[in-house]
Amino acid sequence: MSTERERLDQEIGKKIKRESDAAFPHQMGGRRHMLGPSGTLNTITPCAACKLLRRRCAQECPFSPYFSPHEPQKFASVHKVFGASNVSKMLMEVPESQRADAANSLVYEANVRLRDPVYGCMGAISALQQQVQVLQAELNAVRAEILKYKYRETSMLPTSHVTLLSSGAVSIAAPPPTPLPPPPPPSSSFASSNAVFLPHLHSGYIYCC
Description:
InterPro entries: LOB (IPR004883). About 60% of the residues lie in helices and about 0% in strands.
């Protein structure tokens, strides 16, 4: 009884193995359509760089994080001015935290160079420097006007007082008269011998004869 069961189990196992071996090539063929050359699933949408260069966009593509397939004109400008290999080298030389800013800077420089093939970014920088100089001159002029009005206000205060006094609108009270100093007291000998008192004159005055 046990031998028959073992034989039946072996036959069932062989049958399952044959069925799995027969289905394996079909499964591999269907998977090859989903697998890339390296055996990885090609689920990555090609970036603007790989789409323009007509190549497969790998998972470690240096352009895919910074050049979206929805904005192909950005990489087209960069590729036309700098070249794809130079852009890749420049991005690899920059720290990863600054690569997005570097890519945006390359796009800006490429667009400016295409608009102005002679001066490029230097033309834009010169124009901005001239604007800064003009605005600085205007700022200095405004500051000078502010200082002039401040000094004018301080100088108009005493001038207004002098104008009011000269017009008579404001009167100034005259100071009280200074009293005359009292006469010196006469000596006893001079008063007894030579002094003559005149009662009809103002008292307090002594006339000598």
